[in-house]
Amino acid sequence: xxxxxxxxxxxxxxxxxIRAVWDKDDEKYYISVVDIVxxxxxxxxxxxxxxxxxxxxxxxxxxxxxxxxxxKLKSSDGKYYNTDVCDIEGMFRIIESxxxxxxxxxxxxxxxxxxxxxxxVFDPSLTMQRAIDTYRAKGYDEAWIAxxxxxxxxxxxxxxxxxxxxxxxxxxxxILTNEIYKGWSGMKACEYKAxxxxxxxxxxxxxxxxEVALADLGELATRDIALSEHPEGLTENIDVARRGGQVANxxxxxxxRQTKKSAISNQNALNYQYIDENHKLENK
Length: 284
What we know:
This protein is of the alpha+beta class. The protein contains twelve helices and five strands. α1 (33-41) crosses α2 (46-59).
């Protein structure tokens, strides 16, 4: 499987993020098995549950496991790891091996997911509309959504410039993004998410107005410097990303000097709060 020909995405089922990739050649989804298993089994450790289930299925000679592939998917720590995936048909067979009341709803969701993507191929505007509907359902207002959609478009312009400069691998895009973030916030994306108490949620979706403005400025400056200097390869692009981040950092310092408050906030947009299960058990 050629991951360069695949589009990494996230889908939402009952407020749970399901990681997936769209294979442009096969025109089908490959879904993270552990994400689906976690939802269906309601296990606190979906990865451990899947490892045990996988072992049992292998012993039984079940073909569901042999039909699984491994792709690099982004984890909650912002890094990419080899992750078991399979297509929707194979996922149905795995779900059938898990006794759960959630089996039927997730099957219906997966079936809809497959037909939804086919519709989007013929009418790409449906992708944007579904994103808008998802943001509305999460409670974001129309002005915020409009700015977020514009931000996504601007981000695409930056990644296109990086691609022209020889950047092709997903982890390279992540490295460059981290350099911009570190330049103005002092934190990598995963550290910033942890600071805000986030796990799978989008960092940009949970920034304040000034944080979004600084993130946008850092990426815009990086893009314009790259367009001017035409850096080639990861090393040269890292240098440009750091300088773009510094432009946003200069703006941050000016903002904080004038407002006498920090531009960096540990608040998230929708007041997510996770409970540390280990700490909870210790207290009991």
